[in-house]
Specification:
The structure holds two protein chains of two kinds.
Chain A: E1 2-11, E2 14-24, E3 29-33, H1 40-48, E4 53-62, E5 65-66, H2 72-77, E6 80-83, E7 90-94, H3 95-109, H4 117-131, H5 135-139, E8 141-142, H6 148-162, E9 166-170, H7 178-191, E10 197-202, E11 215-220, E12 223-228, H8 230-239, H9 242-245
Parallel strand pairs in A: 3-10, 3-11, 6-9, 9-10
Antiparallel strand pairs in A: 1-2, 1-4, 4-5, 7-8, 11-12
Helix pairs in contact in A: 4-6, 6-7
Chain B: H1 7-16, H2 21-24, H3 36-45, H4 50-65, H5 102-111, H6 115-122, H7 126-129, H8 132-145, E1 149-152, H9 153-159, H10 161-167, H11 178-186, E2 191-195, E3 205-206, E4 221-226, E5 231-237, E6 248-249, E7 252-257, E8 262-269, E9 283-292, E10 298-305, E11 310-313, E12 316-319, E13 325-334, E14 339-348, E15 354-364, E16 368-377, E17 385-395, E18 400-409, E19 415-424, H12 427-435, H13 440-451, H14 453-456, H15 461-474
Parallel strand pairs in B: 2-4, 3-5, 4-7, 5-8, 6-9, 7-9, 8-10, 9-11, 9-12, 10-13, 11-14, 12-14, 13-15, 14-16, 15-17, 16-18, 17-19
Antiparallel strand pairs in B: 1-2
Helix pairs in contact in B: 1-3, 3-4, 4-11, 9-10, 12-13, 13-15
The chains are: A alpha/beta, B alpha/beta.
The complex binds adenosine-5'-diphosphate and magnesium ion.
Magnesium ion binds next to helix 1 of chain A.
Chain lengths: 246, 480
């Protein structure tokens, strides 16, 4: 599903990713752990095509489609979704309108018909129910005045609405208390499916108690330095990153 | 072939011609330039009473001596008033929509303008294509039953001379400013609305449904009177792109609200802005003013300004009646080389008068946009209050946005609040939207519409939807 080979990338001429290899198969959940500044967010931005993150070598494919050739919105249409570490506020843009605009842009790009308001609302209602999201949240402007927990749940709601093939979650656990963390993890688990892949980026092992990964990688200094099963996360929790990074 | 008639001869001929100037007018066009004869010609064409011709001539005499307004932050070469036409007959109608400019049709498509509207807006003869005449007639009958008058200003001059005499020029005097003065001398048509006492106008009155509207854009004149306790919502303009051969536009709008009356006036202005190199485009110099004459009356201006090469426009409220209210909600978007200097004046005269100003300014490309607002509190305006909020949004690095608030208060007990912000669309916001599937242009349009929400929600529903799409269209090419 997602195939990354020898990926190198820089920001402002400074090399951040140093030949990164990674393969995630459909239906799998991979976790990426690593110290601050290792390049975890950089990897998510490079994959999603953010300006200022320059790829200098290597490849990244999603189901055979070369992601690196596409605009960010084309990558979204190809099925890539990024749940942001810091979701941004968009004043005056209502949540419902935002979701509808996003879904219809993606449907259009995929050659599907755009949804009428009524059909859209039906889908939204059912996703909202599944994820236990209150009406009130959808009446507000995108992320404006949302608590940390609400922002992350909002990311999961968007993920559910856009039905991506592959989801990257960048430190979705940061700033969440344990209850909020459980709700978010629960939402993600509901979206796990045989034809969908996940890359869960986290600094702490805690999230992985709730979203149990198939594979755990350690990212340090811009490359994968160690790969193992779910137990690797526990090991890291006990020993810290120091040994691996050294 | 005979020699073409001189203007003076044409005027003479017209004066002899008693009835039916409507049919005769078809092929006529006054020569270029502005002089007394041209004004006589216009007045004669319209079969106007003597007093109105006098008024026009008086305005013209005054206009000749008046300097151009200087305060606005706009620049253009000096206007050669002699190099323009001041009267031309309605253009030939098209026979079907197929004859219309394909670019225009494309924009209709993007805006989602209803099919029947498209034909009318593109200038297809109404009777050829659809039943808008009968629609308009039905509306007129409904309005007549309520005693509402809604007609062209020419018809009003003919049929309701007393109202015209009493009110025209009463809010915007002919000598108000050079542009208004020119309009007073040469105005060709416009709308007239009268709502009798206690009547709530049951529909949005819009220039869409006016039959005689062709070619009135250049020197349009509108007069709306709401008697005691009356209510009316009026829509001016349309979201479709409006092209005009005439570069100079100088409209005048006067509103009068008596005791407890409410007038809501919404505008979408989309005159041709010129091309992406700043060539061509309309100079839109508009004088709009409302008088809250009676106690507890209210006038609310809402405008979405996206067109014109230069916009010079300050819809204002004179709050004379005690407890009267004025509102100004504005979105002004400039792109490419457009210039806009727009805002409002709130003149508080009566006690406890209130005003509210929400101005959203969006600049993109190499454009320049200024909000200019005056809040003036006279000594007698005890307990007057104003709230002003001006927000500017910049798209890109080459544009400018400026806020120029003037406050003059002669009453120490008045309460004034002013808030202003300037922001840029952030890369974070753009990327977030793009990651959710929106193209960069769609993302900009969405963010800008969010920025304008407080104003847009004041527009009548159907209009708001079109206006949202219009914002997207006017920002095309502003990124990437
Ligand atoms: N916008 C930026 N400009 C310059 N350097 C950056 C920028 N973003 C990240 N970096 C640098 O790239 C490295 C990796 O950062 P990041 O990917 O955010 O790490 P992580 O998410 O693993 O904490 C760090 O050294 C950081 O300072
Ligand atoms: Mg990070």
């Amino acid at each position: 599903m997602l195939k990354i080979k020898n990926l190198t990338a820089e920001i402002d001429g400074k090399q951040i990713l140093n030949g990164l290899d990674l393969e995630v198969k459909a239906g799998e959940v991979h976790a990426i752990m690593g110290p601050n500044g290792a390049g975890k967010s950089t990897l998510s931005y490079v994959l999603s095509g953010r300006d200022g993150y320059d790829v200098t070598g290597g490849t990244a494919e999603l189901d055979g489609i070369n992601l690196l050739d596409l605009n960010p919105n084309e990558r979204a249409a190809a099925g890539l979704f990024l749940a942001f570490q810091y979701p941004v506020e968009i004043p005056g843009v209502g949540m419902t309108n935002f979701l509808k605009t996003a879904l219809n842009s993606i449907r259009k790009a995929r050659g599907q018909n755009e949804l009428e308001a009524l059909d859209f609302l039906k889908i939204l209602k059912s996703r909202q129910k599944e994820l236990g999201i209150a009406d009130d949240m959808l009446k507000r402007a995108v992320n404006v005045g949302f608590s940390g927990g609400e922002k992350k749940r909002n990311e999961v709601l968007q993920m559910a609405m856009l039905e991506p093939k592959f989801c990257i979650l960048d430190e979705t656990d940061s700033g969440l208390d344990i209850d909020a963390l459980k709700i978010v993890a629960d939402g993600v688990n509901k979206l796990r499916a045989p034809d969908r892949g996940f890359l869960v980026i986290t600094h702490y092992q805690r999230l992985l108690d709730y979203i149990v990964p198939d594979v755990v990688h350690v990212l340090a200094k811009g490359k994968i330095v160690k790969t193992g099963g779910a137990e690797l996360a526990k090991e890291l929790e006990a020993k810290g990153y120091a040994e691996l990074v050294a | 072939m005979s020699e073409p008639l001189t203007v003076a001869e044409q005027v003479q001929a017209l004066n002899k011609y008693e009835a039916g100037f409507v049919t005769d007018i078809e092929s006529d066009k006054a020569p270029k330039g502005l002089n007394e004869d041209i004004i006589r010609f216009i007045s004669a064409k319209k079969n106007e009473p003597e007093w109105l011709l006098e008024w026009r001539l008086k305005s013209f005499e005054h206009w000749k001596k008046m300097p151009e307004p200087q305060w606005a932050k706009i620049s253009h070469p000096p206007i050669d008033y002699q190099d323009a036409y001041y009267y031309s007959a309605p253009k030939a109608k098209l026979n079907s929509l197929d004859e219309a400019d394909p670019k225009l049709l494309e924009t209709f498509e993007k805006l989602g303008v209803p099919m029947r509207e498209r034909a009318r807006l593109a200038g297809v003869a109404v009777d050829v294509v659809f039943d808008s005449v009968s629609v308009a007639t039905t509306f007129k009958e409904d309005l007549n039953k309520l005693g509402i008058i809604f007609c062209s200003i020419s018809e009003a001059i003919r049929d309701h001379p007393d109202l015209i005499k009493k009110y025209m020029g009463s809010v915007v005097p002919f000598h108000d400013n050079k542009h208004a003065c020119l309009n007073s001398a040469v105005f060709t048509d416009g709308s007239f609305v009268f709502i009798p006492e206690g009547v709530r106008c049951p529909m949005e009155l819009s220039t869409y449904f006016r039959i005689n509207e062709i070619n009135t854009g250049q020197f349009e004149r509108t007069l709306i009177i709401a008697e005691k306790g009356a209510y009316v919502s009026y829509l001016e303009g349309c979201t479709a792109p409006m092209r005009d051969e005439n570069q100079l536009h100088a409209a005048v709008v006067e509103l009068i609200a008596h005791e407890d009356a409410v007038i809501k006036y919404s505008t979408v202005q989309n005159w041709y802005p010129g091309d992406e190199n700043g060539k061509g485009g309309i100079y839109n110099f508009v004088t709009k003013r409302g008088l809250c004459a009676g106690a507890r009356s209210k006038i609310s201006w809402t405008q979405v300004e996206t067109g014109s090469a230069i916009t010079w426009k300050y819809p204002s409220c004179v709050l004379k009646g005690d407890d009267s209210q004025g509102e100004f909600y504005s979105v002004a978007i400039t792109n490419n080389f457009q210039q806009a200097d727009t805002g409002t004046k709130m003149i508080h005269m009566g006690a406890r008068t209130r005003s509210r100003i929400i101005a959203k300014t969006i600049s993109a490309g190499k454009s320049d946009s200024t909000y200019r607002g005056l809040v003036k509190i006279l000594a007698g305006a005890d307990g007057a209050r104003n709230y002003t909020q001006c927000d500017s949004l910049l798209v890109g690095d080459e544009c400018g946005a400026h806020t120029v608030p003037y406050i003059e208060s002669k009453n120490p007990r008045a309460k004034l609040e002013h808030e202003a912000t300037t922001s840029k669309i952030s890369d974070d916001q753009l990327f977030y939207c793009q990651q959710r599937g929106l193209s960069e242009e769609e993302a900009v349009a969405l963010i800008v519409n969010g920025f304008c929400r407080e104003v847009m929600q004041n527009l009548p529903m159907e209009f708001a939807v079109e206006a949202q799409k219009l914002i997207a269209i006017s920002l095309e090419g502003s990124v990437g």
